[in-house]
Amino acid sequence: MDIIFKNVSYTYQVGSPFETTALDDVSLEINGGQVTAIIGHTGSGKSTLLRHLNALSIPTAGELKIGDLVITPKSKEKEVSALRKNIGVVFQFPEAQLFEQTVEKDIMFGPKNFGVSVEEAKKIAREVILAVGLDESYLEKSPFDLSGGEKRRVAIAGVLAMEPKLLVLDEPTAGLDPRGQREVMEMFMRLHKEKGIGIIMVTHNMDDVANYADTVVAMSQARVLFHDETINLIEREEELRTHSLELPFTLKFYKELKEMGMPIYEPRLSIEGLAREIKGVVENG
Known about the structure:
Blueprint: E1 3-12, E2 20-30, E3 35-39, H1 46-52, E4 61-66, E5 69-71, H2 77-80, H3 83-86, E6 87-90, H4 103-113, H5 118-131, H6 148-160, E7 166-170, H7 178-195, E8 198-202, H8 206-212, E9 215-220, E10 223-229, H9 237-242, H10 249-259, H11 271-283
Helix pairs in contact: 4-5, 4-6, 5-6
């Protein structure tokens, strides 16, 4: 499910003294089969861009095409509501949205709301609880008795229960310790590879960008700075720094090694890849 922004603008509180342009003439094409990271400092337009992806916000100018659906300023709620079944949004701290008495009921809520039978919703709940790395015994537990990491997995299971074609993640590792961050991101990557679900993630974590994203959209002052392959960030260091952004650790370290004279020819995004490159240089003298 590809996404095309064509001269999209969005303004909050139009006509009031507090009128603010959050997106300004944004044109952008996102491959729905990839993992795309959206980066930028606070107020750059990232969150507003994200809200357009499942029509929580409608453009005030321009056109947005998601799959076969075209969204314009004239689009009505009933015309875009079906989009929310195909695009699952995992908001920052999604565990705060849990509300049912049991994990099973919480996961079933979305499918039932879209007309799925109770029996089918129960089946879906059993499938997605396993997909997020928890066993079926969790279905009978209260979500409020779970650990923070378990709550987040249950909240994600509720999004997966809608069988989305695309996942939109808003700071997916926020508030988690390093182990929890790694486990959650590896879970998303497994879903991406095994189920073919595209992923768009808004993040401040540049190491997550390096480890998981195929491409990067950088934003500043409501506009798109660039959309490029992640490996090419090393060529955009000055541009990143100008907009209060920085390189991921691996690319920064690679650059420092090059400046020291180490003959490393290819930048690497992963720690493992960089370590192999260094080992090869050392072994070959």
